[in-house]
């Protein structure tokens, strides 16, 4: 299978954002992203660092608020309220996962929909469902950009999404539907899952299980998007798809690392720029 180059596409998207941000700054508008991180989760520390680096590359101001694991839900909600009403903050997100004593749903719902650059609030999810302009969740939006970059039409294709999370599986299905693909969502209760997956012209694997998708489950010529980030016992990163096993198959696949993760980061920059433009009546 041919690899789809997420690194190159992410660099191109970020360069476009950087050019637009420079023009905005010329008009006196300075986009800013605030990221709130609660606790010491090592992977989250890395992802938040990556977001600040991307902002610097794009000319976007950034603030990372690091709160201790002992932070209460009320304290976190108070910090969100401060940023919601701060006109210098264009985009606001809370890094997930949160410590167990904090209710994730309550926290997400507290973020102003106009600053919700993750696209996780019920208002933005609802807008996505009914096809209104909204902030698209970054991972599914990045997957769509990767698929479009192949130049293959998505319309009329059979798409299978493996996984039904609120952050990836469900919005991914909606975005594929918007591209006029015929979409099936598979999950842990799907009967004869391999035979359903084998039907896919477009397969999005977001099930969170290392190399769950084996070569016998993939149609010849399929476009495969691997959303999985699974850390193996050897310390290496593995996708949800057995990419080496697909070497002799026709088709295209996004690698892990170097695929969806990088586009997730790039789409956050797109959303932060969009938030800044909207807040200044420029979108
Ligand atoms: N508030 C949010 N929390 C989380 C999100 C999110 O979109 N918003 N998604 C993930 C974590 N995440 C971004 O936050 C993220 C994960 C992975 C990558 C990435 O670049 N992956 C690289 C590999 C990186 C590595 O070596 O570890 C790749 O796939 O090439 C970026 C962002 C959960 N939380």
Automatic annotation (TrEMBL):
Instruction: Give start and end of each Tetrahydrofolate dehydrogenase/cyclohydrolase catalytic domain.
Output: 4-118
Q: Which UniProt keywords apply?
A: Amino-acid biosynthesis, Histidine biosynthesis, Hydrolase, Methionine biosynthesis, Multifunctional enzyme, NADP, One-carbon metabolism, Oxidoreductase, Purine biosynthesis
* Residues given in the record as NADP(+) binding sites: 163-165, 229
What are the record's GO terms for cellular component?
A: cytosol
Q: Where does the chain cross the membrane? A: none
Domain of life, per UniProt, equals: Bacteria
List residues of the Tetrahydrofolate dehydrogenase/cyclohydrolase NAD(P)-binding domain.
137-279
The molecular function terms of the Gene Ontology recorded here are:
methenyltetrahydrofolate cyclohydrolase activity; methylenetetrahydrofolate dehydrogenase (NADP+) activity
Q: What does this protein do?
A: Catalyzes the oxidation of 5,10-methylenetetrahydrofolate to 5,10-methenyltetrahydrofolate and then the hydrolysis of 5,10-methenyltetrahydrofolate to 10-formyltetrahydrofolate.
Name of the protein described by the UniProt record: Bifunctional protein FolD
- What organism is the protein native to? Anaerofilum hominis
Supply the gene name.
Answer: folD
């Amino acid at each position: 299978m041919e690899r789809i180059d997420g690194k190159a596409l992410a660099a191109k998207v970020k360069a476009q954002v950087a050019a637009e941000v420079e023009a905005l700054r010329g008009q006196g508008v300075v986009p800013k992203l605030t990221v709130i991180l609660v606790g010491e989760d090592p992977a989250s520390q890395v992802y938040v660092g990556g977001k600040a680096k991307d902002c610097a590359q794009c000319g976007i101001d950034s603030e990372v608020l690091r709160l201790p694991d002992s932070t209460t839900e009320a304290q976190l909600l108070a910090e969100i309220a401060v940023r919601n009403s701060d006109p210098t903050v264009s985009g606001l997100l809370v890094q997930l996962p949160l410590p167990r004593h904090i209710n994730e749903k309550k926290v997400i719902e507290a973020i102003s929909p106009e600053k919700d650059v993750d696209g996780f609030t019920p208002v933005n999810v609802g807008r996505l469902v009914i096809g209104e302009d909204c902030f698209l969740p970054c991972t599914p939006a990045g997957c769509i950009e990767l698929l479009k970059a192949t130049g293959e039409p998505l319309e009329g294709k059979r798409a299978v999404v493996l996984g039904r999370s609120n952050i990836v599986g469900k919005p991914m299905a909606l975005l594929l539907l918007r591209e006029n693909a015929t979409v099936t969502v598979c999950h842990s209760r799907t009967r004869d899952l391999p035979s359903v997956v084998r039907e896919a012209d477009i397969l999005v694997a977001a099930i969170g299980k290392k190399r769950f998708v084996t070569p016998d489950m993939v149609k010849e010529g399929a476009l495969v998007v691997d959303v999985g980030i699974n850390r193996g016992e050897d310390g290496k990163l593995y996708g949800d798809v057995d990419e080496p096993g697909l070497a002799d198959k026709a088709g295209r696949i996004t690698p892990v690392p170097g695929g969806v993760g990088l586009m997730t980061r790039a789409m956050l920059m797109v959303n932060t720029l969009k938030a800044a433009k909207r807040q200044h009546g420029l979108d």
